[in-house]
């Protein structure tokens, strides 16, 4: 055991008798960490807490199975006595002996004490699945002098000398250890609870740009890097309203990709012969394509997508708008981005390449750019085009999203935000995939600039309440 690791162990052995009173003093701060991690978890997930201490954070987390490990025998003994229903193990994370793999791995305010952070990250690969999420919380470098001062005057227990890391340092260490960092967040400007004052500072002021960068805690979200691309079956859902002239092209222009391709048309309250055309196309190409068809029960694209996804059998779910302004020929790009795990939710972006002259009106372009900036801030990761019709995710993730839909509710007539917000809540990595947006060749748009624009503005405020200022 290295001298630094022994110093760390000795310190926490001495701290153990005072641990409960120390935690009570800063209960507000530690509870906020647990609440934020819980936001991105579901009850069916398994969780491993590395450096669990006396187990207080792990005890507050959701999860069907919870395991905590710590190098300190004294801390593990406290945890086992306080929480007998949770499994706590005395273990050095650098030489982890667990055979089990976990959905979520939490490292809460411990990486600063590790002797060799990269070795710990590398060792944790042993207990990672392909879709495991790593959630790391640690102190902002800017707070080092304030925390040291707190130790000097006795309001904070003295801690061993630790690594004070920048976000860039942590990202780099994760990358070198085989992980992909996809989101960074900041929380807590005022770490003690004074009624009303703490709420205003932390829940309102602390979430605003600039002030947020001064927060005490950083949160880094990462996932294992996967290089090998696997083969998956795919379901392409095509909502169609008054798109009779595009139905056959939608079939013929989709390239063959993946293990199996299923095409699902959902017709939605058309006033032309779209439904009749869909039935004819299914019959015409029944020996060449796997085609399912249905008429939606409600209204709006969101309702149509939910119906199509409920019928889907593929491993991967895709949306293709029947106006074909997103070229069907681009669908393999979305497939390969997801199959190679470049992201967990692949979102089409129409605002990168120059688009056809009449593909989008200037006012719509300005509106989309505004919503891009707003939602990039809200979701804490870049998202350039929230309203592109093509969005792609694994069916298993969508099923989790559907089970947890009650958090946001079925509020979204478009379906785009239902999926984007749900993907964020599930802690999925959202990746923009640029496409060339084409001009319509048949029919008229179903989008009303002003009516739908006001709905989108409501979505922004809805998202701020549910995501940013909860």
Number of domains: 2
Structural class of the secondary elements?
alpha/beta
The CATH superfamily of the largest domain bears the name: Spore Coat Polysaccharide Biosynthesis Protein SpsA, Chain A
Q: State the strand order across the main sheet.
A: 3-2-1-4-5-7-6
Number of strands: 14
pLDDT averaged over residues: 86
How would a textbook summarize the main sheet?
A: 7 strands, mixed
Estimate the strand proportion.
15-25%
Fraction of residues in H or I helices: 25-40%
The CATH first-level class of the largest domain comes to Alpha Beta
Q: Return the CATH topology of the largest domain.
A: Spore Coat Polysaccharide Biosynthesis Protein SpsA, Chain A
CATH architecture of the largest domain: Alpha-Beta Complex
CA(first)-CA(last) distance: 43 Å
The rounded Rg comes to 25 Å
Number of helices: 17
Spatial shape: elongated
Which secondary structure elements does this structure contain, and how are they paired or packed?
Blueprint: H1 3-15, H2 19-25, H3 27-39, E1 46-50, H4 56-60, E2 65-70, H5 73-82, E3 87-90, E4 102-108, H6 117-124, E5 128-139, H7 144-153, H8 167-176, E6 179-187, H9 197-204, E7 217-224, E8 233-240, H10 247-252, E9 260-267, H11 274-284, E10 290-295, H12 301-311, E11 316-319, H13 331-339, E12 345-349, H14 362-379, E13 391-394, H15 395-403, H16 416-425, E14 430-434, H17 449-468
Parallel strand pairs: 1-2, 1-4, 2-3, 4-5, 8-9, 8-11, 9-10, 12-14
Antiparallel strand pairs: 5-7, 6-7, 11-13, 12-13
